[in-house]
Amino acid sequence: MCGIVGYIGKKDAVEIVLKGLRKLEYRGYDSAGIAVVCDNLLHTRRSVGKLCNLTENIKKNPISSNIAIGHTRWATHGKPSENNAHPHTDATNSIVIVHNGIIENYADLKNQLKENLKEFKSQTDTEVIAHLIKKYYKNDLFDAVKRSLREIKGSYALAVICKDDPDTIICARQDAPLIIGIGQEENFIASDIPALLSYTKNMTFLEDGDIAKITKDKIIVVDKDGNEQNRQVKTIHWDPILAEKAGYKHFMLKEIFEQPRTIEDTLRGRVYPNEGKIYVEEVKLSKEDIKNISNIYVVACGTSYHAGLVSKIFFENFAKISTEVDIASEFRYRSPILNEKTLVIVISQSGETADTLAALRLAKSKNCQTLAVCNVVGSSISRETNHVVYTHCGVEIGVASTKAFTGQLAALYILALDFASKKESLPKEDIKKYLQELWEIPVKIGEFLKNVLEINKIAKLFDRKKDFLYLGRHINYPVALEGALKLKELSYIHAEGYAAGEMKHGPIALIDEAMPIVVVATDSTVYAKIISNIEEAKARGATIIAIASSNNNEISTKSEHVIYVPKTDEFVSPLMSVVPLQLLAYYISVNLGCDVDQPRNLAKSVTVE
Ligand code: M6R
After folding, report:
1. First vs last Cα of the chain: how many Å apart?
2. Is the pLDDT of residue 528 over 70?
3. Which listed residue (2, 162, 368, 594) is catalytic?
4. What is the pLDDT of residue 419?
5. Are residues 83 and 166 in the same domain?
6. Among 16, 184, 261, 407, whose Cα sits 20 to 30 Å from the Cα of 418?
7. How many structural domains compose the chain?
8. What band does 506 get if pLDDT is binned at 50, 70 and 90?
9. Any alpha helices (H) in 75-174, and if so which ranges?
């Protein structure tokens, strides 16, 4: 939540920071702002709403400098307004700060700064840091920030500049991501990789407690104890083109269409279907370790949680390991029974989700083995876990997750088969067959994506509906949940996902003529059961939109609308059946004129609780 960008060098810092913020707008878009030092004065520009408003503001009131910090906000404390927009300054307009996170003791700190109280201009938790730094500032910004952070409780990624020190950016992180991009006679900071990809591939990921002093030629990092640290520089191989729309109207549509490639990338080098071999080399668990796992907890949020629900079926059916799936914000406040024989798998696209990170830390504190399925190299979760399996999806910019979900499913599927192979819980022939089924999925999704306009025709018939139900069973029940999540987050239409067998226990009362029901009815062991559920819904007047396998000749007699997908084996079917649901939500949202890539109230990376 919230994006930070900073630049120091010889170039036009305003342009670089604005361009970087554009890449981070998915992190929040309630307001945006920028601060520069010019002629020993601070200049800030701030605008409510999207970044384009700030860009317009700067066109009318130009500023320029070789040093700048910028911010795109997802509001936590204080409603979206110009006063609450970052950057925030102290009372003398000497120190300016941008911040992502939450300062938990901001009210206490504010009281301690009583003499400045009347000088506070915003309702944010952030502003107090600027006043605190000013209090400690004695011609050494690095020192003033260090002293201030000792008093701060909470989470932060922050960047500070000072009018009297126009050659320095100070930044720090605690429980919120911050990256330093290393250039030639220039350096950068950002909350996330895409903001920097056009400028450098060499990046350092700050660790919790780190504070850094950055000039155009030098970076000094000290840890929480004040000891200088040589943090590793990583080379990031993501293609900057991935962070562009490449001719698609929206990032989300582009990312849906990327799925054949991103699944292939996630499998490449790991899966050899002809030989029935799997190599997940990043996981350093021996055969013995895997045999010793008594149970698995899969913990995640949102779409990643839905991938976790699907993976329960993989781990139980393939590896024969009892698996529970939990929402991270629940798991962390329960008292889950964990011990050294429990494997805790956390799933996170961003690797920065606060609740998932806290769940991981809880698991580690109980001596569990931990494994992350993650998309972002160098993210907090990927660094803190014992083992990490990366989904090679590239940057996902659309706030609604699509390619990350199918990448997670692919990674979890091969992980479960790898465990099965090491535990010998499945015959080799079965492992080979399941690998082959997965291997064919990218081509099948590619085939399906040739006819997406059919889905738009259906979307146009239903885009004025107020409520939708999504039904699925067994491995496609989480897909129904995911379909409903996509629709509500993108189009603001109320949608619920249910296990179809649960309908009779209450939700069936919701059904009337006005209710469209999307049913995942692809070929499976529970196909006959789901057909009965369709009959029950139709008997109450519902309109059915079925997702069915291409060989199904019967379903059109039972459903008003059918979206056919290539036939797959049941275990890989979620990778296929979710794609029409992503597209249905996409088209309904476009038809309603909603902001597809940046739906209201949301942010891509939820780094606060
Ligand atoms: O980065 P993460 O996978 O940890 O994010 C978890 C959720 O916030 C995320 O999956 C969210 O539900 C999706 N963006 C919804 O499409």
Report:
1. 10
2. yes
3. 2
4. 97
5. yes
6. 261
7. 3
8. confident
9. 106-112, 127-136, 141-150
